[in-house]
């Protein structure tokens, strides 16, 4: 049995026992679960090398997001987060910078992550799109002080709609669209106030959330359309997460953190083969980046 065969099955989310069954069915080969485990375990050396590889000095955009997984820990199954840091490099190509597994987030954890990115060569990030992760903005601004931390609008909208009834959803979406598609921060704030006047009696948590996060939202409206489109092209992280969720959703629990990272890495290796083109309108966005972040763009 070639190791690539079992790794390919593993990357699609199959368990060791399921791989054993498929190999028997397809190749009429009896392979022990221990052998399959040993073969897939060889991937961890490759994972560690990938996780420590040098990175570019500058990333115009970095997205940070999380996938929830169940992991066995000291005889119990607990929820943990697999945090993904996705960069868009100077060529407009997507690149996953790393995967980190943690039960609880906080400033100490995010300082560690940002410190690792810095140690691997990252010197500057223009815009970091985050999802209100506790302690992350402070860690980014401490280690990369020039970085503009931007709350991800897609996540904010999605969270806003979490408790909206089906019959109100279309109207709420339309009114929120008036906020995040506004042409300026002033117009956006006026649209937000109009939204709150209309919906606060029924859905008070939406307006409260947008107001509490406004300082992290409003910088978005100061960017020209080309950069806004680049930031809002959250298909970058959303499509990645959708692909990875398909792999992990049938797993009741992973035996350990390494098993999570291993399967996500193998799945990513498949997904990233499609990352051959820059994100849409990237040359126009780069021209604007060069103006707004003058002096920070590498000359060559």
Outline of the structure:
With 300 residues, the protein is α/β, with parallel strands linked by helices. The protein contains 15 helices and five strands.
Distance between the termini: 46 Å
Q: Which percent bin holds the helix content?
A: 40-55%
Based on CA atoms alone, the radius of gyration comes out at 21 Å
Give the rounded overall mean pLDDT: 82
Q: Look at the helices and sheets and give the structural class.
A: alpha/beta
This entry's quaternary arrangement is single chain
Strand order of the largest sheet: 3-2-1-4-5
Q: Proportion of β residues?
A: 15-25%
User: How many helix segments?
Assistant: 15
- Large-scale geometry: globular
The parts where pLDDT drops under 50 for at least 5 residues are: 9-14, 18-29
* Most strands sheet: 5 strands, mixed
The total beta strand count reads 5
> Which series of helices and strands comes N to C?
HHHHEEEHEHEHHHHHHHHH
């Amino acid at each position: 049995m070639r190791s690539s065969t079992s790794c390919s099955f593993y990357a699609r989310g199959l368990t060791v026992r399921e791989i054993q069954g498929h190999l028997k069915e397809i190749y009429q080969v009896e392979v022990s679960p221990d052998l399959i485990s040993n073969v897939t375990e060889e991937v961890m050396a490759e994972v560690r090398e990938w996780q420590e590889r040098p990175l570019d000095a500058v990333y115009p955009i970095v997205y940070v997001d999380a996938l929830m997984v169940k992991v066995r820990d000291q005889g119990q199954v607990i929820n943990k987060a697999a945090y993904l840091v996705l960069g868009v490099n100077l060529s407009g190509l997507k690149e996953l910078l790393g995967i980190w597994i943690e039960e609880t987030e906080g400033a100490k954890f995010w300082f560690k992550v940002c410190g690792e990115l810095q140690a691997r060569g990252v010197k500057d990030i223009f815009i970091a799109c985050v999802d209100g992760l506790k302690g992350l903005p402070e860690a980014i601004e401490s280690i990369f002080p020039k970085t503009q931390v931007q709350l991800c609008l897609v996540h904010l909208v999605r969270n806003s709609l979490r408790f909206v009834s089906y019959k109100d959803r279309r109207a709420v979406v339309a009114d929120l669209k008036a906020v995040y598609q506004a042409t300026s921060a002033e117009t956006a704030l006026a649209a937000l106030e109009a939204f709150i006047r209309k919906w606060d009696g029924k859905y008070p948590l939406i307006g409260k959330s947008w107001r509490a996060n406004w300082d992290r939202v409003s910088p978005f409206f100061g960017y020209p359309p080309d950069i806004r489109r680049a930031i809002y092209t959250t298909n970058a992280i959303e499509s990645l997460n959708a692909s990875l969720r398909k792999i992990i959703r049938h797993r009741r629990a992973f035996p350990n953190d390494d098993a999570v990272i291993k399967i996500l890495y193998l799945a990513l290796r498949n997904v990233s083969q499609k990352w051959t083109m820059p994100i849409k309108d990237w040359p126009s966005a780069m021209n604007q980046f060069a103006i707004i972040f003058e002096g920070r763009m590498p000359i060559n």
